[in-house]
Specification:
With 472 residues, the chain is mainly beta. Helix content is 13%, strand content 33%. The strands form 7 sheets. Strands 1-10-9-8-7 form a 5-stranded antiparallel β-sheet, with no helix packed on it.
């Protein structure tokens, strides 16, 4: 026979079980056990290449052995002192051969993937005639634009690991038939991801055309089977899918930071280095030399962008200022045409508005996004709007850069440090138009962003090499 205490204990247990059943806690626990993390798409997390095991280091002191004394070699006149970083990274800093085969770093069925990639990137003749004219487009009104942004969502299959390391730059292929994206990382890799493709690793193909960080990527609008990429190793390469090769377009030697097209047929480029040198390159000229080389006498060059209508003008983000130059007067060294002032720290990026170039959008380390009026060519364009935005990403994330939406002349997107993680779209007047967020599929900062030029699609890249795509 049970005691009074045991009977009370059993009664308490029954009451607790009844309470748990009433709130469905046990069912929630089972559902939690059965729930799985979203499957990782794209590249495998760990490299399949087996690394050579290094011998285990043992202490000579613990083994009662004398340490071997090696005298330090003194540099001579014929053997100057070499900086430690240079001596350690000699092999890594060497440039690849001038012409590289289009070898796939990942994914099986290279021949099949190459054939399908050519078909995807090819565009029927005349498809880009209107784009190449660069006529100003009629932007939809803000109400319709906000409604369009609200239809763009992200799902589990719209997140993929495209490169092995931190995404440093990314871009959309201009084709409107399918979504094809590219990303460059800090280790010289360039990845291609077809959202609805099954080639390679879940639609991802990986290449390594550079020895150091890929600083800038762009598809040729005149020849859509070509992808250009620049790197801090100094090389500017063109991936021609039809030729199945990476051809060297230009070699800066070291520190290539950015480039942009100066002609509608994408044959002429302006290339900038971090040291303030600007080269005008004509791809029709045999070899990989420049037409002209100019020094802007600046400490750091972080961004370069060509005017969308008047291609002779281009802007350069130089330390704490943004200057607009005229290509026709560079040889005379007459200086900049305009200078955008008011930045208290280094300017990370600057871009003309996509259709008319009447606005310039800058992102600065002083936690400000600024919009300047460049509709008239004045010495100091007026500041229209200044938006407070956290730019302190730290050393492990790429810098946040605000970029225009090519389909909407007066709106732009920027990554955010706020929680929950998000992408924010602003109007040039400073008002937020929409916030892209998703608790299940967006859990990291997305500092690298880009809008599709014709379709309703937006990408964001993070520090682990993943691209997140919002689309309708």
């Amino acid at each position: 026979q049970l005691s009074e205490y045991e009977l009370k204990r059993l009664e308490t247990i029954r009451e607790n079980q009844a309470f748990l059943s009433s709130i469905s806690l046990l069912e929630a626990r089972e559902d939690l056990r059965q729930s799985k993390r979203p499957a990782t798409r794209g590249l495998a997390r760990w490299s399949s290449v087996s690394k050579e095991l290094q011998p285990v280091r043992k202490s000579l002191r613990l083994q009662n052995k004398q340490a071997e004394v090696v005298p330090a070699s003194q540099p001579t006149a014929t053997q100057p002192r070499v900086p430690p970083m240079k001596s350690l990274n000699t092999e890594e800093s060497k440039l690849p051969p001038r012409l590289l085969e289009l070898s796939f770093e990942s994914g099986g069925g290279a021949a099949c993937a190459h054939t399908r990639l050519v078909v995807t990137m090819e565009v029927p003749s005349g498809h880009y005639v209107e784009d190449l004219k660069e006529d100003p487009k009629v932007a939809p009104d803000l109400e319709r634009y906000r409604a369009t942004l609200q239809t763009m969502k992200i799902t589990e299959d719209r997140v993929a690991k495209v490169v092995t390391n931190r995404v440093y730059c990314a871009a959309f292929h201009p084709s409107g038939s399918s979504l094809l994206m590219t990303a460059g990382d800090t280790m010289g890799h360039v990845g291609l991801w077809g959202l609805s493709s099954d080639w390679g690793d879940d639609g991802v193909l990986l290449f390594k055309p550079h020895a150091r960080c890929v600083s800038c990527v762009a598809f040729s609008r005149a020849c859509p089977v070509q992808l250009l990429s620049g790197s801090y190793d100094g090389s500017l390469r063109c991936m021609d899918v039809e030729k199945a090769a990476f051809d060297e377009v230009y070699d800066f030697g070291d520190g290539l930071r950015t480039f942009d097209f100066m002609s509608h047929d994408c044959s002429t480029l302006v290339v900038g280095s971090v040291y303030g040198d600007v080269a005008i390159v004509d791809r029709r000229t045999p070899g990989s030399s420049h037409e002209s080389l100019h020094s802007l006498h600046t400490n750091v060059l972080s961004c370069l962008h060509v005017h969308p209508v008047h291609k002779q003008y281009f802007l350069v983000a130089e330390s704490r200022t943004v200057k607009i130059y005229d290509n026709r007067s560079l040889k005379s060294k007459s200086g900049p045409v305009s200078e955008l002032q008011g930045h208290s720290l280094r300017v990370g990026s600057a871009y003309f508005s996509p259709s008319t170039g009447n606005r310039v959008l800058t992102s600065c380390g002083d936690d400000r996004i600024r919009i300047f009026d460049t509709s008239e060519r004045t010495a100091t364009p007026a500041l229209l709007t200044s938006i407070r935005h956290n730019m302190h990403t730290g050393r492990w994330l790429s810098k946040i850069s605000a970029v225009w939406d090519p389909k909407q002349e007066d709106c732009f997107v920027a990554g955010s440090m706020l929680r929950p993680r998000r992408l924010q779209v602003f109007h040039e007047n400073g008002k937020e138009q929409h916030t892209f967020t998703d608790g299940e599929n967006v859990g990291t900062v997305l500092p690298v962003t880009a809008f599709h030029p014709t379709r309703n699609a937006l990408l964001g890249g993070n520090s682990s090499g993943r691209l997140h795509v919002f689309t309708d």
